[in-house]
Amino acid sequence: MIYEMALVDPNNVHVAVTSRGLRQMPYRTRMYGHTMTKFRPALLAVNKQINAEAINYLYGHKFIFTGSAALMGFLFMIGHLNQKRLNVIRIESWGSSRGAKKVANHSGLTMLGGATNLKSLEIGGMRDRRGPGEKAKLFFKDAHLFIQAFGIANGAKDAAVDIVELDRADFPVPYGAKDSLKEEQHQVFQRRLRNFANSN
Predict the structure, then answer these.
(1) Which pick of 22, 46, 133, 157 has the fewest CB atoms within 10 Å?
(2) What pLDDT was estimated at residue 14?
(3) How high is the pLDDT of residue 56?
(4) Are 87 and 59 in contact (CB under 8 A)?
(5) Short-list 154, 159, 184, 179, CA closest to 169
């Protein structure tokens, strides 16, 4: 089908941010080791009928962002109505920095409050020595408005907890520890995050 050929990229959609003059703008980037496919989202601008028929092909992708600044710029560009079409989002580098990056962490997830149909929110880059409870606290501070909006839309205060996935490699475990220990750490993270969601 023409829509699949033009609007589906098997390597997902990777978004970074670049400076243009005094502005920071999101742009689609290549995944390392892969070439760009003939991906033509401009097709959606041809007319209203094509847009209505084809737009879900575009937003059915997994969108992978280099960081929360790229997420924030992208969400601003697509607008509130298209945010509801997003299915899977991955933020490669969340981190716990200060300054502008920290502000983008909070702002990016606050803007994500419109994405009430998300199926998965993957977070990478929390590679510090914090344990799972502290990671949950840090994430909740940045994400509480998204968690609240998602909970209202989905009928449970803690609904967002079920879609949040942290990279298992980001949990501090002894060298050579079994993968099951990392999974246990993730479960602790989810329990603590659920407690925060339900108590606020």
Answers:
(1) 22
(2) 79
(3) 80
(4) yes
(5) 179
**Residue 91 burial (CB < 10 Å; 0-12/13-18/19+)?**
buried
Strand, helix or coil for residue 44: helix
Q: What is the largest CA-CA distance in the chain?
A: 57
Contact (CB, 8 A) for 100 and 156: no
- Distant-in-sequence, close-in-space partners of 127: CB < 8 Å, separation ≥ 6: 95, 169, 170
Q: Is residue 93 within 8 Å of 65, Cβ to Cβ? A: no
Which of 93-97, 106-110, 115-119 comes out lowest in average pLDDT? 93-97
Where do the structural domains in the chain lie, given as residue ranges?
59-199
Burial 48-80 (b: 16+ CB within 10 A, else e): eeeeeebbebbbebbbbbbbbbbbbbbbeebee
pLDDT bin (cut points 50, 70, 90) of residue 86 is very high
CB atoms within 10 A of CB 21: 6
Predicted TM-score (pTM) of this structure: 0.84
- In the block, tokens 């840090």 appear at 138
Closest among 42, 40, 104 to 76, alpha carbons compared: 104
